[in-house]
């Protein structure tokens, strides 16, 4: 008899509009939750949305809505006449997901505070641009302006020095917020709910689009990037199309030199970073790429273990051999267009197959006939109504065999919310983030001074274990027997060589949850390809929408890793719920690329449903007009005239506010500018006037003037200046963290707060290499003499047993 999905009986009321809330509740519905979407008679605006502007029939819904609303129910309610009806739904639910934008959600009775007061048993998850409290709580914003505030527009040097920087195309920030909101809701569920979860979209973008820039700047005295320059080779044009080739480590740069026949370029003692060395050889590298076909380059790069991927878009992605073999895309159960499959997979299968999205109000009468709303199953309610006073993951022991960014970002949230996380490295192969800060190997304890490692690993314990040795593998197996969860993000071949597959792990601990995070999945022709964020972004289509229309796309160089991490956390929490209900262990496959194709879903959906290929358009986009970056009159901290503001107008009311602010009242009476489509047609003219207006003002003056008139606007922040944003200070987003080697430094925290705490999330600094060897092995019964012998053999250690190769990026 089939097992019910893990979240069966968990009822979520969806009072949100837009992508973030819809994606949050989609992930919950995939896990088996009953999601009841409460809409006004006009319906969620997503029902009328198409990024390409496709015509949607009055009795139909947009394709993106039909993807995001799979497996949900829809009820229509009037906020004035249906108060009792909606309150009955809330009374019988376990959680509610809320955002501004509908007359139901913004009714005085259904604000987050009012819902918490009337229904204290609920987890109330709010998703807003800046959070519910703080000086910016009610300021207007869009994804575009939030990217600017986050530092994600300018911080990774994306774009050309002779033009404005460019934002990450598509609506990835909306999906990131939804994924974080889902994970936070499930975390609250683990301790019984009964709290407010306050998600800030700005903070999710900081974690998703920048790379711990504040800690980096404070610890090293320099920003991660101080100029816009191409990532070389990056996305380049071959004989027959675009390809992405990356070198994220020193070894990959050396291998790229060898692959292109330029071993003479290899200089392990160069004072330049690998990025600088590659830029010096850009012409030769691009010439070599142009002389080869995409397939020839990919075969060579794969043989050399160099990250590579084709550049996907809505038109070609479903035909790529890897996605075909893995069945990565499925058919929408209502309208038959192509859509991504689940962003993760499990063995045994525990996720619900997508069911058709609901027509507006399709289930209204169904729930009216129920006297007290959807009703919570008594056994389930009893299990979850016992509210814990501890942290969500108290008592959970996690073996963290991850490295770099994607895997550690997942386990870091577990550690910040109470889990005991044991981070395993070896002296032969320390975590890669220890090596990318450009600290000279001649400096004492250089491997302990990486701000990236520090930012990703607070609250964890550190174990250094040589897994190439029999003794190291034996100790690892003994440790597995004490753990609830094991997480790894090696390429599959590495785990195969170690003999550490799910069957082997289950033989030690039958009920363990094993979370595997390969770049491209556990099967398929690309399974063993190395995966860094940039090739994941290229292969999924995210890169395609990023950049200027007349040039090759740019790699976002950011979102692929943290996006994978937060999706993996969602998958893990669903798997843990399955184990709680069945006692059964679960293998979770959370491939980075599967998470990425889900947040880029709009491209394949628009092409399949409407035949429309979405294209990059600089800083313009389909959600607002005008939308662009405009230069201010300031000189930046690097002595360049490179200060910008982001402006995005999404409604007619905001357009009138913009006209008033910039003194162009004549625009308000121009019939050609009275609609978004009309403003889009005359975008060039509007840009000219806004550019001239902004060029005489500071960014602060522009923000004050436009916010006063309700217009979404932002300064394009240098990411290492995030601590200067008053909203982040008010929410306590940064906490100072002490360290035995490094000075006390601000570290970013979580992009959501819980009304039941914790008040502080960083309680221990990131571990020194092997810091907890003695403690952890003593717990396993290893004697002091045996530990000393293991140290003599090199199985354990506290310093890298490797050459001093520089690995600056």
Structural class: alpha/beta
Topology-level CATH name of the domain at 625-711: formyl-coa transferase, domain 3
- Helix % is 25-40%
Mean pLDDT: 94
Q: Which residues sit in consecutive blocks of at least 5 with pLDDT less than 50? A: 376-384, 803-809
Fraction of residues in β-strands: 5-15%
User: What would CATH call the homologous superfamily of the domain at 625-711?
Assistant: formyl-coa transferase, domain 3
Largest sheet: 7 strands, mixed
Number of strands: 25
Q: What is the overall shape?
A: globular
CATH class (first level) name of the domain at 625-711:
Alpha Beta
* Count of DSSP-assigned helices: 32
Order of strands across the biggest sheet? 3-2-1-4-5-6-25
Oligomer: single chain
Explain what this protein looks like in three dimensions.
Residues 332-384 are annotated as: Disordered. GO terms for molecular function: CoA-transferase activity. Keywords: Transferase. This is Putative acyl-CoA transferase/carnitine dehydratase. Residues 360-383 have a biased composition (Basic and acidic residues). The chain has a seven-stranded mixed sheet, with helices on both faces. The protein has a seven-stranded mixed sheet with strand order 12-19-18-17-14-15-16, with helices on one face. Among the domains are: 247-306, no CATH class; 625-711, formyl-coa transferase, domain 3, CATH 3.30.1540.10. Residues 376-384 and 803-809 have low confidence and may be disordered. It contains 32 helices and 25 strands. Helix 16 crosses helix 22 and helix 22 (560-582) crosses helix 23 (592-599). The longest helix has 23 residues, at 560-582. The chain has 809 residues and is of the alpha/beta class.
């Amino acid at each position: 008899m089939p097992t019910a999905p893990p979240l069966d009986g968990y009822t979520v009321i969806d009072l949100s509009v837009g992508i973030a809330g819809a994606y949050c509740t989609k992930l919950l519905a995939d896990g088996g939750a009953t999601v009841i979407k409460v809409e006004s008679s006009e319906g969620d605006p997503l029902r009328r949305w198409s990024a390409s502007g496709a015509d949607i029939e009055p009795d139909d819904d947009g394709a993106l809505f039909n993807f995001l609303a799979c497996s949900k129910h829809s009820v229509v309610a009037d906020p004035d006449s249906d108060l009792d009806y909606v309150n009955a739904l809330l009374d019988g639910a376990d959680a509610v997901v809320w955002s501004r934008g509908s007359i139901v959600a913004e009714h005085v009775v259904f604000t987050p505070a009012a819902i918490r007061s009337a229904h204290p048993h609920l987890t109330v998850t709010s998703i807003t641009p800046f959070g519910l409290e703080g000086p910016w709580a009610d300021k207007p914003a869009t994804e575009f302006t939030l990217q600017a505030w986050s530092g994600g527009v300018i911080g990774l040097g994306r774009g050309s020095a002779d033009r404005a920087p460019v934002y990450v195309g598509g609506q990835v920030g909306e999906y990131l917020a939804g994924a974080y909101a889902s994970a936070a809701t499930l975390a609250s569920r683990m301790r019984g709910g009964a709290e407010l979860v306050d998600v800030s979209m700005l903070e999710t973008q900081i974690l998703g689009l920048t790379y711990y820039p504040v800690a980096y700047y404070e610890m090293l005295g320099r920003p991660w990037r101080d100029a816009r320059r191409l990532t070389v080779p990056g996305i380049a044009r071959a004989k027959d199309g675009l390809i992405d080739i990356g070198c994220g480590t020193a070894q990959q740069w050396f291998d790229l030199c060898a692959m292109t026949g330029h071993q003479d370029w290899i200089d392990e003692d160069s004072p330049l970073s690998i990025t600088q060395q590659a830029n010096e050889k850009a012409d030769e590298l691009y010439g070599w790429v142009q002389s080869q076909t995409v397939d020839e380059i990919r075969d060579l790069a794969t043989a050399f273990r160099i990250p590579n991927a084709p550049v996907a878009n809505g038109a070609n992605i479903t035909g790529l051999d890897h996605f075909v073999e893995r069945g990565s895309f499925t058919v929408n159960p209502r309208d038959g267009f192509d859509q991504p499959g689940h962003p993760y997979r499990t063995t045994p299968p525990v996720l619900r197959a997508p069911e058709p999205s609901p027509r507006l109000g399709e289930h209204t009468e169904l729930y009216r006939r129920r006297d007290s709303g959807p009703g919570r199953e008594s056994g389930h309610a009893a299990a979850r109504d016992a509210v814990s006073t501890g942290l969500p993951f108290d008592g959970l022991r996690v073996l963290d065999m991850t490295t770099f960014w994607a895997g550690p970002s997942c386990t870091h949230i577990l550690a910040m919310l109470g889990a005991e996380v044991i981070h395993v490295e070896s002296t032969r192969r320390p975590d890669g983030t220890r090596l990318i800060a450009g600290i000279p190997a001649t400096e004492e304890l250089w491997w302990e001074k990486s701000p990236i490692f520090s930012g990703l690993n607070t609250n964890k314990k550190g174990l250094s274990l040589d897994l190439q040795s029999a003794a190291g593998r034996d100790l690892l197996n003994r440790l597995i027997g004490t753990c609830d969860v094991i997480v790894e993000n090696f390429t599959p071949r590495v785990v195969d060589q170690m003999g550490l597959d799910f069957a082997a792990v289950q033989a030690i601990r039958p009920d363990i949850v094993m979370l595997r995070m390969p770049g491209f999945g556990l099967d398929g022709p690309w399974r063993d390809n190395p995966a860094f964020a940039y090739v994941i972004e290229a292969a999924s289509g995210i890169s395609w929408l990023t950049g200027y229309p007349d040039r090759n796309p740019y790699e976002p160089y950011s979102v692929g890793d943290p996006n994978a991490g937060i999706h993996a956390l969602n998958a893990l929490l669903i798997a843990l719920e399955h184990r709680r209900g069945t006692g059964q262990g679960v293998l979770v496959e959370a491939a980075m690329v599967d998470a990425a194709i889900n947040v880029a879903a709009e491209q394949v959906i628009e092409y399949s449903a409407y035949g429309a290929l979405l294209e990059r358009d600089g800083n313009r986009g389909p959600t607002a007009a005008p939308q662009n970056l405009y230069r201010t009159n300031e000189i930046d901290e690097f002595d360049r005239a490179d200060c910008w503001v982001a402006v995005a107008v999404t409604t007619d009311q905001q357009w009138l506010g913009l006209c008033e602010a910039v003194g162009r009242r004549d625009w308000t009476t121009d019939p050609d500018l009275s609609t978004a489509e009309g403003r889009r047609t005359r975008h060039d003219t509007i840009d000219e006037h806004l550019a001239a207006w902004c060029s005489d003002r500071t960014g602060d003056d522009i923000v004050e003037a436009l916010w006063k008139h309700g217009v979404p606007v932002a300064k394009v922040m240098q990411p290492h200046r995030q601590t200067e944003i008053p909203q982040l200070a008010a929410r306590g987003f940064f906490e100072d963290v002490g360290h035995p080697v490094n000075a006390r430094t601000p570290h970013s925290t979580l992009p959501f707060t819980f009304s039941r705490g914790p008040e502080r999330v960083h309680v221990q600094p990131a571990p020194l290499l092997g810091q907890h060897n003695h403690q952890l092995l003593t717990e396993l019964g290893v004697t002091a003499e045996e530990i000393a012998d293991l140290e003599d053999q090199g199985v354990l250690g506290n310093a890298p047993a490797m050459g001093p190769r520089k690995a600056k990026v």
